[in-house]
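QA checklist item 7 of 12: single-chain prediction sanity check.
[x] sequence parsed
[x] length recorded as 419
[x] structure emitted
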Amino acid sequence: MSTFTRVTVAALCTISVGCADDEVSDSTVSTVSTSSAPATDSATTTAVGATPQPSSAPSTAATTTAPLAEGDVGLTPYVEGFSNPVDIAWRAGDPAIYIVEQSGVIKPVIDGNVGEQVLNVSDLVSFGGEQGLLGLAFDPEQPLAFINYTDRTGDTVIAEYAVGADGVFDEASRRTVITVAQPYGNHNGGDIAFGPDGLLYIGMGDGGGGGDSERHALALDDPLGKMLRIDPHFAGGHAYTVPVDNPFVTVDGARPEIWSVGLRNPWRFNFDSATGDLWIADVGQGDWEEVDVARAADGGGRGVNFGWSAFEGTHRYNGDQAPDGATPPIYEYSHGDGGCSISGGTVYRGDAIAPLHGWYVFGDYCSGNVVALNGVLGASPTVVTLGNVGSVSAISDGPDGELYILAYNSGAVLRIDAA
């Protein structure tokens, strides 16, 4: 476990609009404000470049629609009846997968049977478009769960709940960890996950508005367009703490919570359970969808600039944003190929489908394609289309190590099986 520095609310408020007390608990809450002006000055771009990354072009992936091997993989209906499902999570020692409905409800599924809801926060959530209850992560060591949602004002909220042995969330235990102001209703990111280091990672979109119009993604004084990394537990009177090894802790004016920069709308990210590599599916602006990888051996994304909005994929985008130090995606595909909104995604480490082992599996909301990407370090990646389910909103592993697919429009959950 990393060492942490206590970041007090008073310190956070010096670069925020303000801080507020949690209306339910007596814990301190930090409200992070986004900057209102485009960050295009040389001081900002120099700071982003303070941790330079390789800027060489990625390998070009070979694409095929053939299966991994004839008859190896099938997409099997598992359970139906959900309303706009957007995320899957599970906890150690529990056979259930927990399905997040965008309207604000979480329900467990065990052996294809849907249980009673374990949480309903629909009264707290702005639901519609890209807003709602968007993410869920269970604490790997404590009986706690964390959710990511947009509140009634449209801002991103990370909140903590105690979870009983039966999987039910204790609503009286609710504690707000952090609130991030959102200037628009889209590009909220929404995913959260605990990394191999036991810390909580928060994927933040660039705030919306189109084209990173307010230049959030590369600005270090701004949490939008970033991967954030915190210890979310209440300690020493503070809502959360910031690891001292976060890359910008000592950079003047930078948000200490920032882990990586240059993201547009990371719609699902995942840590490879075998390697610790961080895989991010970042939704493109209008032409290119991308898969980003930060290898654990290279720091797992520490200080990495993933390029937006200097680049969309590998293609130059905003000319006033410095291109230096951007790490290109491992794979990109154009909207001309039939997709328009990538949905991550995880690396398969299960036992049932040997040929799929080590492949990153993701989908596209528009095309409905489910795709496997072989991203072996140092090799030219290959992609294989596994099938089509329509409106893919997320793909995740379960406690059994097998992969589950959410179909947003139909409300179905499917499983990837050996045929």
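[x] summary fact logged: Residues 18 and 345 are 36 Å apart (CA to CA).
[ ] second reviewer sign-off
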